[in-house]
Amino acid sequence: MIDIGLSKMALIGAVALVVIGPEKLPRVARTVGTLLGKAQRYVADVKAEVNRSMELDELRKMKDSVESAARDVEHSIRNEAGNFERDWNQATSELDAIGGGQASAPGLDLPDIVPTYRNPGKNWRLKRGATPRWYKAQAGVRTHVQSGAARVARFRPRKSH
Question: What is the domain partition of the chain in residue ranges?
Fold first, then answer.
């Protein structure tokens, strides 16, 4: 940028004072300052617009790369799903051919496709390993939740009248 020192500014001010005159100099200085401010704001706006357009271009490139990666993933998933479906159909057709449409063929040791239900023989709603209350009371284990204020009030000595 232009290198203007204090001595150059003083020289420009003296020339302006002689050329313009002392009565018009403050108004001209205000006008020049206003114009310089507008020019600086305009340059800042242009820079911001250029930066925004550059960021927008980068975002578009990133969006395109993400979309292409998503298409590649979708394509590979569809291929794998098709391979799995083909293998599944082949395996089930071989089982149907071996079993003749039955769940298990006589003479062949094939596992059942659908296992039968077996009752576990226990009541899962009961908690069998619970510690007895008398033991908790003897050991001083807290069984009920109490706030700090309630606990203090509970153990506060009673007033005697």
Answer: 6-98
